Amino acid sequence: MGIGYSTARWLAPASFLVDFAAQQYGILSSPNMKDINDANQSFFSPQPYFIAGFFFPQQILQLAWLYRLWKLDPKRSQAEKLELDQIVHYVPYYALGNFCIAAWMVFWNSERLAISHAFVTVNTLAQLYYVAAKLPRMNTRSTSSVLTHLVSKTFAGIGVLDFLHNGSVAFFKDQPATLLVRVLTGLGFGLASASSDWILGGCLVYDLVALAAGQSGSWRTLLGAYAVGSAAIVAAKNWARPPYTSKDVVDYQPAAENDVDDAV
Q1: DSSP assignment letter at 110
Q2: More confident residue, 257 or 108
Q3: 3-state class percentages of the chain: helix first, strand second, coil last, to nearest 5
Q4: DSSP string, 19-48
Q5: Global confidence as pTM
């Protein structure tokens, strides 16, 4: 899924603008995205303001990442090329995610929730695949590595919440959480937390808090307990086994660079 530098430099910002425009449509249209949310509730409906609260800082991270994509020049030095390669490697998955979320917004606002769920599913699976199978270990001395981890893992983390939310309202509208849902939620988030670093793990905890805030009764209490448990798992796992490395960029050449086309 490798692409060249020139392609990455127009594809990434174009996908960002498409997604940003779709978000504005979702906010400003009538009915807007919150109206659709309020009319369609289920056992995985989060407090909607938690999603809004996640949106702004995540956009800032994306802009910083995009700025670096345009700023770095692979012809200037080997170190700069390695920095750029780490960003370009993620661009196809980033663009796919933005286009999927833009399409999701269109179908969400028209209350075609089964179709919107298809786009959410593609995005979430693509982001989780990249984070789990393609993303090199974070190098804390590399700004590009740190930013790519932040952008990709926050994208994947909020994608999990979107997947659960949209799927529940599309196929289980107005239904309570059954015993099976409660057990699988605990197992799923527990296992995911045990395999996550601080960034993705933090997003999973945030997802559980958002879900708890949007629910009521014993289900809300249980989701809150899951959030505390997930936070403990993430902390214990990452303190016992630090997930990051710290090396000079020229000494740290992740496998990601092999997938980048050298065409400028």
Answers
A1: T
A2: 108
A3: 75, 0, 20
A4: HHHHHHHHHHSSS-HHHHHHHS--TTPPPH
A5: 0.91
